[in-house]
From TrEMBL:
Keywords: Membrane, Transmembrane, Transmembrane helix. The keyword Calcium does not apply. It is a multi-pass membrane protein. It comes from Aurantiacibacter marinus. It is found in: Membrane. The chain crosses the membrane at residues 32-55, 76-99, 143-171, 198-217. This is Cysteine biosynthesis protein. The keyword Disulfide bond does not apply.
Amino acid sequence: MASLTSSLAPSLALGFGQLFDGAVLRILLKSIAVTLVAFIIVAAAGWYLLDWLLARGGLEDGMFEGAGAIRELLSLMLALLGLWLVWRVVAMGVVQFFADDVVAAVERRHYPGEASVARELSFGEQAGNAARAAGRNLLANMIAAPIALILLFTGVGTFAVFWLVNALLVGRELQDMVWLRHRQNKAALSPVGPGERFMLGGLIAAMLAVPFVNFLAPVLGAASATHLVHRSNRKMIAA
């Protein structure tokens, strides 16, 4: 555990400090703006879709007095619940499009040698990575949902299930944002160990569940992952 935290803690500290650099701060503000727009679009679409489904299911205004108001309130509650579940998918999906810029900004300042040999990902490759990550996220969370519902009575079991699943997913996503720029071939393994990857993913996944903090979490994760990958790689080479 000590070796894991000794590698992760400096990476997180450096990543947090980088948030206030001009280049990363501009990316952070852009990612927040795009995330909010995407969030509003998803919220509105989900609300109207649920309202339409409930109306088609028979909960119409003519069913009984006040049915329309109940349907709208129920639609809103279900939409908010759904948004809480997919917030991480939306936020991480958005930051995927800015990840290359975040990683490049960190590398230019702290790892110029590695930056000079990095492979620039095309827009198509970034979009493909984002789509695959979003697909994994949705599938994994849909599989976890029944287990989370069963544990709902425990109070913390539901959160623990989603946190565990998303810690694994987020850790992999953050690692790939950096490692895909530098691996020599598709078979090359990341220098970041599974324990470090899980701990970074777990911390960022927890931050994504906290209002307002969740706006910072994806960019902080990308910056911290950059330090973690390169610091781990240098240790591996030195050994």
